[in-house]
C-alpha cells in the first residue's frame, strides 16, 4: 500500500493505493468513497482483499474534513453529496491522471459515487454501491439518532478521534446535523440516477439499520444502464461483516462482459 497527500486548491487530500502483484494494466482502477464517519483507515483490510480478488488497483481517499485530509472550511452544505463529484473528486482525478475508473461507494459514499458516475459518465466504467442511500427513510434518521446517543460515551468519541483527530466532533456533527436539517429533508437521487449509464450493482444488507433494501432497488430501477440489486445477509457495513463475500461479488460483477 502506498499512501501520500495530494495537494489541491482546497487543501491536502490523503490518498492510498493498493496494487496487486499481478495487476492487469488494461483494467480500470477501483476508487473507493467512504461513509459519513469513515476514512481510508476504516476500510481496514478490504482494499487489499479487493485488489487481490479483482486484479485491479484500488484507490481510496479521505474527503476534506476526514481522516488525514485538511479540515473542512465550515459546515457541510445540503448539496454536499453532489458537490463531492465536482470538487474533491475532480482534483483526485486530475492529480492521479484517472482517464477511466470504476467507483465503489459505501453508505453516503455510495450516494456520492452515483453522483460522480453521472457527472463523469465519460470515464466511469462501472458503479458499485454498498449500503447506499438514494432517498431518506425514517429508518435512516432514527439510525443516525441512535448512533449519536452512542457517541455520548466518551470511549466512542475517543475511538472516532483515533481516526479523525481533533476533527472528530466536526465529523459527527456533519453527519447528524446535516441529515436532520430542514434543508436536507427532501433529499433524494431521483434526478441523478438516470444520468448513470454504466453497469451498476447495488448491494445492500437485509439487516441494514440505516436503510431498507428499497434503497438498492431504487438505485437499480432508476439508473439508465444495466443494473442489478443484490441483497446480502448482513447489516450496514459488509466490508467489515463479510469482506471476502463482498470482494468476490465485486470481482464477479467486474469480470462480466460489458
From TrEMBL:
Keyword Hydrolase attributed: yes
Domain AB hydrolase-1: 30-248
Source species, domain of life: Bacteria
Keyword annotations from UniProtKB, A to Z: Hydrolase
Example of a GO MF term: hydrolase activity
Protein's name in the database: Alpha/beta fold hydrolase
Native source species: Halomonas tibetensis
